[in-house]
Amino acid sequence: MKLLFLHSDFIEFEAKKAALRNVPALTEEEKSGRVEDVLAVFYSVEKGDEKAIDDVVKVATGHVQDVAGQVKATKVCLYPYAHLSNTLAAPAKAQLAGEKFKASVVAAGFETNTAPFGYYKSFHIQVKGHPLAELSRSIEADDAKAAAAASEAGEDGRESEALKKEAGLKSHWYVLTPEGELTPADDFNFAKYPELDAFQKHERFGTRAAGQEPPHVTMMRKMELVDYEPGSDAGNFRWYPKGSLVKRLLETRVSDMVAQSGGMRVETPIMYDYEHPALSKYLNRFPARQYVLKSEDKEFFLRFAACFGQYLIMHDATMSYRHLPLRLYELTHYSFRREQSGELSGLRRLRSFTMPDMHTVVADMDQAKEEFLRQFKTSMQWMQDVEVPYEAGVRFVRSFFDENRDFAVGLAKELGRPILIEMWDDRFFYFVMKFEFNAVDTQGKAAALSTVQIDVENCERFGIDYVGEDGEKKAPYLLHTSLSGSIDRNVYAILEQQARKRDRGDKPSLPFWLAPTQVRLMPVNDAFRDTCYQMAEQLTAAGVRCDIDDRDQGVGRKIRDAEKEWVPISVVFGEKEAAAGTLPVRMRDGDDAELTIDALIALAKERQGDRPHAALPLPAKLSMRPIFRG
Asked: How many CB atoms lie within 10 A of CB 73?
């Protein structure tokens, strides 16, 4: 089912004539209507809904309650609107679903009006002009069935208590400046901080649901980086050679940064026992939906983070105060969260993803804050490496903020600009504070990348302790850290940033160290290919990813193709260049130059810096490369 919510000053409608056969005749009263100060709900019943009408209606009613609660609406007008979908249910099934939908919304306590089903209608509507006035939702029948099964299961259902609490979370929003001023977000002047304004609007009023396809999807497919995998569940992707290279370089970089910070790398299973006493309790404290599988007569869940395995390792370890902070790290190539289908959107939100995950055992809150700040700074370095602008959001339990206000101000000072603060009156989850560095995309949606949380309850839950200076066992605190956030989401953030550059009239590009091809040599004809091969060998030996456009194409076509692939440095080589002994280096950023081969190598090394290097992901000769995109 597709839903469009319009919080309106009024909606009025009038049925003109029947659009379907055998629809019931209408009384004069039923033909038209007008409702004021109303939440208008336009809906389409889809083919897939036919197998689970009751479940879909139940979820749809929940969305009505959610949105009506946010906009404080007490009146609802249900308007059947076929144009929201191109896979409509059979008319009889759609009409039945509409009747059930009305009954369910009425039972939820709303004054409810309905526009006639199966008729051509005219309507007038005046939508209110606030950030929540226009919202959409998409419901998949399979998700609705799963939610209904979880609900019927009661306390044994698979929806965690944290998910339920997250849905009803009440937040207070502020902006904290480096000078220590804490201002309610509604009163803060965002004129100088448009990106922070976009971020706070998404966090406060936005939705995870995907609208139109974001531009990074077109980019990632056109550049043969990554694509949807139709043979798998939604939210799972195939990575082509160039995309796999980008992904591996990001993985290597963050793993190196963790190692330099003292992280010890481990590997843990991807599935865990649902009935494990400590794990089952933790599931109810983490807001994520799980994949479930059966082995013999037992149920297991696929991990959505590396927490479980690292907790169990820490439980079995013998730790002294001398070992702290103690950091365990895993690069989880396969973490799984069964996100709702309407939230899936390219690489922004997936069901299978790669997550660099570190957990740090600390002795006390002072050590926790010291380590938190250190990891905050390291995360700033990560964001600099991927060249993605970002905004900081920090979430606090109010009592913890009040006790640690100077610490919070120190984060804003470190960042050098205001940060968004979300405040909770009570502690809903296992942490008392966390930060997230968020990228804002072309559609105004924010996605968290780097993050650190201070966990105050899981060491006790999992029996993790250390021996203090007095020889007694003590309960530590725990930091959950991903210096980068999901690797997949970093690719999304990079591409969305480049889409914004393109929209401003600038050339999009990848950070040099991530470019699949860093230097491309383009011989003008066959006579200069061998020389280009020799130069390519020199560049490759020096650690530069270099390829050769040896195809039987004109120079203009070769240059255009290099532009389309965002190659940062390209060189056309012919008789003039062979005689001159220097190379006409075309820089994608426009800073062209005449360089010797040695100077070109030095330039590439300077741009590479200390980031990890990997070999060219495809044959060096373009004539030998297949085409991967469909």
From this structure: 20
